């Protein structure tokens, strides 16, 4: 079964939204897949596409500096996080 590009874009938006609410804490691929109710491999593919676009950053080391062998953590890039913050402030400001 093939998923259309607009649906992939919607799922990618859900991933970005989840990472925004988890910021600055990075999330493992498996946790993100659980939150968006998708397969881990499909979620990883979407995350890699988001990485190519510069929207997310992959972290391959644990907090102690040791490299993961099979796991990757993800977080929003600083540029995207700042963009989200600016738009959140515009959305919630009341207009007289």
Summarize the SSE layout with pairings.
Elements: H1 5-22, E1 27-28, H2 29-35, H3 40-52, E2 56-59, E3 73-76, H4 78-92
Antiparallel strand pairs: 1-3, 2-3
Helix pairs in contact: 2-3
Which properties best describe this structure?
96 residues; mainly alpha; Arc Repressor Mutant, subunit A
Domain unit count: 1
Shape: globular
**SSE class:** mainly alpha
Number of helices: 4
Low-confidence region ranges:
none
Report the end-to-end length measured between terminal Cα atoms: 50 Å
Give the strand line-up of the largest sheet.
1-3-2
Name of the CATH superfamily: Winged helix-like DNA-binding domain superfamily/Winged helix DNA-binding domain
Task: Tell me the radius of gyration.
Answer: 15 Å
Helical fraction = 55-70%
Average predicted local confidence, pLDDT: 87
Give structural notes.
With 96 residues, the protein is mainly alpha-helical. It has a single domain (5-92), classed as Arc Repressor Mutant, subunit A, CATH 1.10.10. It has helices at residues 5-22, 29-35, 40-52, 78-92, and strands at 27-28, 56-59, 73-76. The protein has a 3-stranded antiparallel beta sheet with strand order 1-3-2. The longest helix has 18 residues, at 5-22. It is globular, with a radius of gyration of 15 Å.
Short structural description:
The chain has 96 residues and is mainly α.
């Amino acid at each position: 079964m093939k998923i259309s590009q607009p649906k992939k874009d919607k799922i990618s938006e859900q991933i970005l939204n989840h990472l925004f609410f988890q910021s600055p804490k990075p999330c493992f691929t498996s946790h993100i897949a659980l939150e968006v109710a998708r397969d881990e491999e499909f979620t990883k593919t979407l995350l890699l596409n988001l990485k190519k676009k510069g929207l997310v950053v992959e972290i391959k080391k644990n907090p102690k500096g040791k490299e993961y062998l099979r796991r990757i953590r993800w977080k929003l890039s600083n540029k995207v996080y700042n963009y989200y913050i600016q738009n959140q402030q515009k959305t919630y400001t009341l207009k007289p």
